[in-house]
Design goal:
Elements (H helix, E strand, L loop, with lengths): L2 E5 L3 E6 L5 E5 L8 H21 L3 H7 L4 H28 L3 H20 L4 H64 L6 H16 L25 H4 L3 H17 L2 H12 L1 H33 L2 H20 L3 H30 L5 H30 L1 H22 L20
Antiparallel strand pairs: 1-2, 2-3
Helix pairs in contact: 1-4, 1-5, 1-6, 2-3, 3-5, 3-13, 4-5, 4-6, 5-10, 5-12, 5-13, 8-12, 8-13, 8-14, 9-10, 10-12, 11-12, 11-14, 12-13, 13-14
């Protein structure tokens, strides 16, 4: 019986070629996180989502309501997005190198709060761009730091389940904040919405402080095997010679190239016929998506651990072209909102399982957060180009053609995932899927 050894910080896994199942012999871990620390981590994900949600989707509406024309709004938002994309991969490298990952989270939340304070001031072009620079520059450090802290606390064996719980809390934070911001803007005006992320930054910082730093294994947190004395960090060039990792990054790019423009285009299409109904409709769509993520995230983390990554990824990628086609067939608001369930399924699976794939491919390299940053970069580039591609298709051929074109890109993503990316989790990985065998 052929066997493959999968290296872990806490033990090893012997994967049987005949059954594609893994029996894990877990050695004693150096640190076992307490319940208080894990609950603080989960609530940190909740409040970080609060802070980011309060700043992101509602900024455009605030600027437009304040008299900015669409071009100026677009330039400001694009600037913030470019800052985020440019810093995603370097931020991952910084998170890998930094031992004080809790400090990175605390500083990032504080910088986001400062950006919100600037937006509370009288609107000037300079202050808006400085705020966008701060918001866009701090956001890339948050997700890698939270994932790294999680890995450092629970290790590779329990990462899937805990990361799923984290994402459930994050999505719940998005729902709660969207409702809170909508209420505040209705009662007190658009400018008051930026009080929300400022106020919610305090419990986020308290959650960071409630995590016991002594319970975080900082070598494990960057995907390294062994202790500080024996840990190995793979060179960046070696990491990106991993063909499976590179193909998965291309799949992530294509997924978001197809996905990102669909909901904004739907909002634009509805706004042309009934502008007053567009905003409540969009809020309903966003809430449906986040509710699906909230209720499914924990289950997805467990399922990915027991059944593998690829079946879930194929489902998440596969519903995207279906969603694009359905947008061309439905016109009633309830039906369109119902279609957003598919958006929730796709984003829940991608948001959770993509990080698990990165963890699988970087285990023992010490480059987990760098690769996570590269994934975020590909996601950001794909999302940015998606709106351009969708806009060109709408301008030349109409909304239905645009949805079908984006669905075509999604089909390409599904095909590449099916053919080019093998199972990466030890639950079902075969004997020939070791990481080293996939290196160029």
């Amino acid at each position: 019986m052929r066997q493959r050894a999968c290296k872990h910080r806490t033990g090893f896994v012997l994967c049987c070629a005949t059954s594609f199942r893994c029996s894990e012999v877990v050695l004693a871990e150096s640190v076992q996180p307490g319940n208080r620390t894990l609950r603080a981590l989960e609530w940190l994900n909740f409040f970080v989502a609060d802070v980011q949600t309060g700043l992101g989707p509602f900024l455009a509406a605030y600027l437009a309501a304040s008299g900015w024309n669409p071009a100026r709004v677009g330039y400001a938002l694009t600037f913030g997005g470019l800052v985020t994309v440019a810093l995603q991969t370097p931020a991952g490298a910084v998170v890998d190198a930094a031992r004080r990952k809790r400090l990175l989270v605390g500083v990032s939340v504080a910088v986001l709060a400062v950006g919100a304070m600037l937006l509370l001031a009288p609107l000037r072009t300079f202050t808006v761009y400085v705020a966008q620079f701060l918001i866009g520059g701090s956001a890339p450090f948050l997700a890698p730091s939270l994932a790294a802290i999680t890995l450092g606390l629970v290790g590779t064996a329990a990462f899937d389940k805990q990361f799923g719980r984290n994402q459930a809390f994050n999505a719940a934070g998005n729902v709660v904040t969207a409702l809170l911001v909508a209420y505040v803007s209705y009662k007190f005006g658009y400018r008051a919405i930026f009080v929300v992320p400022i106020a919610l930054s305090a419990p986020a910082v308290f959650s960071v402080l409630a995590i016991d730093g002594k319970e975080i294994d900082y070598e494990r947190a960057r995907g390294s095997s062994g202790d500080a004395a024996t840990a190995h960090t793979e060179g960046i060039g070696g990491l990106f010679r991993d063909k499976v990792l590179l193909l998965f990054l291309v799949c992530a790019f294509l997924f978001h190239l197809a996905n990102a423009a669909m909901l904004p285009e739907l909002g634009e299409m509805l706004a042309k016929g009934n502008p007053k109904a567009a905003a409540p409709f969009m809020s309903a769509c966003v809430i449906v998506t986040q509710l699906v993520i909230t209720v499914s995230a924990t289950w997805l983390g467990k399922r990915a651990q027991t059944r593998g990554r690829k079946p879930l990824l194929l489902v998440g990628f596969g519903v995207l072209p279906i969603r694009g086609v359905l947008y061309t067939l439905a016109r009633a608001a309830p039906a369109l909102i119902g279609i957003q369930v598919l958006d929730g399924v796709a984003n829940a699976i991608f948001g959770i399982v993509s990080i698990l794939v990165i963890k699988d491919r970087t285990e023992g390299t010490g480059r987990f957060n760098l690769a996570s940053g590269a994934l975020a970069t590909m996601v950001g580039i794909g999302a940015a180009l998606s709106t351009t591609l969708g806009g060109v298709l709408v301008q030349r051929f109409g909304y239905s053609a645009s949805f079908l074109g984006l669905a075509g890109v999604a089909v390409m993503a599904v095909g590449l995932l099916w053919v080019g990316v093998p199972e990466t989790g030890c639950a079902q990985a075969g004997p020939n899927l070791s990481r080293t065998s996939d290196m160029a």
